[in-house]
Automatic annotation (TrEMBL):
It comes from Palpitomonas bilix. SMART domains: Nfu_N. Belongs to the NifU family. InterPro entries: FSCA_dom_sf (IPR034904), Nfu/NifU_N (IPR014824), Nfu/NifU_N_sf (IPR036498), NIF_FeS_clus_asmbl_NifU_C (IPR001075). One of its GO terms (cellular component) is mitochondrion. PANTHER family: IRON-SULFUR CLUSTER SCAFFOLD PROTEIN NFU-RELATED, NFU1 IRON-SULFUR CLUSTER SCAFFOLD HOMOLOG, MITOCHONDRIAL. GO terms for molecular function: iron ion binding; iron-sulfur cluster binding. Residues 70-159 form the Scaffold protein Nfu/NifU N-terminal domain. It holds the Pfam family NifU. It comes from the Eukaryota. This is Scaffold protein Nfu/NifU N-terminal domain-containing protein.
Length: 282
């Protein structure tokens, strides 16, 4: 639980996360002031910020499954668990891959496809070194968890590929055509916000910055169905972005696909159908 009395711990944890990711010195990192964080507005307690206080976190439970060590960690979302296999999943420096359905997993990830075979699995998030599994409300972890452990162990011991296509680079990668404001927003998200959110089995995806000054973000993994997600967005992410980037007027959550994303998906599906038809005629 985030405590106001330990705010001084946050910058150190953020800097450590930045060093771990190999991020270069940048506009956002230079805004960190020698062990102090002042966001200009009060930050209400949010469970997702508990990951910054690593000294307060209890030791992770470790399950030994036929020679492989798999750690599991609870998240602020009671329906989501993190599984840490001790080997790279997507690998450091890569983004996360959200698999909200079995159809998505079929197209993108053999590991996700296997995990969806477990009754009660609702969605999956693949991270650099973790897997977040969200179960259906009403199903018991006592039943779901051992099956997930077994599938993860068999998959990695079998040396299979985690994804079928390229590994996602992440939505916060700064592109040449990004203006200064968008670059600052992405830098803050990548170095100050996403590391903390990923520690709790979730992620935040940058979608857009509109002409009215609103940043559009999508919550993934444990965050997407967490009851404290709006607290995190408004009292954590929004306050920080508005403090460091005066052009930001607020933050809004994107649920589902945007129109542009829908068009891209439909075009991709159409191309896939044509390929399958062509292969079927050979």
């Amino acid at each position: 639980m985030f405590r106001q009395g330990v705010r001084a711990v946050i910058p150190a944890a953020i800097r450590q996360a930045g060093r771990k990711s190999g991020a270069p010195a940048s506009i956002a990192t230079r805004l960190i002031h020698a062990g102090r964080v002042t966001v200009g507005r009060s930050v209400t307690a949010s469970p997702l910020y508990s990951s910054l206080l690593t000294s307060l976190r209890p030791a992770l439970p470790t399950v030994i499954v036929r020679g492989m060590f798999i750690q599991s960690r609870t998240t602020p979302n009671e329906h989501s668990l993190m599984f840490i296999p001790g080997v790279p999943v997507l690998g450091e420096g890569n983004g996360t891959l959200d698999l909200p359905s079995y159809k998505e997993a079929q197209q993108k990830s053999p590991l996700g496809q296997e995990l969806f075979k477990v009754d009660g699995v609702r969605s999956i998030l693949l991270g650099p070194d973790f897997i977040t599994v969200t179960k259906v409300e009403g199903d018991a972890w006592e039943v779901v968890k051992p099956q997930v452990h077994g599938i993860i162990m068999d998959f990695f011991q079998g040396g299979k590929e985690v994804v079928t296509d390229h590994i996602p680079s992440g939505s916060t990668v700064i592109h040449d055509d990004d203006d200064e404001v968008v670059a600052m927003i992405k830098e803050l998200l990548d170095t100050r916000i996403r590391p903390a959110v990923q520690e709790d089995g979730g992620d935040i995806e940058y979608v857009d910055f509109d002409d009215e000054g609103f940043v559009h973000l999508r919550l993934k993994g444990a965050c997407s169905t967490c009851s404290s997600s709006q607290v995190t967005l408004k009292n954590g992410v929004e306050n920080m972005l508005m403090h460091y980037v005066p052009e930001v007027q607020g933050v809004t959550e994107v649920v589902g696909e945007t129109e542009e994303e829908k068009k891209m998906r439909e075009a991709s599906d159409e191309m896939l159908k044509k390929m399958e038809t062509k292969i079927g005629t050979l």
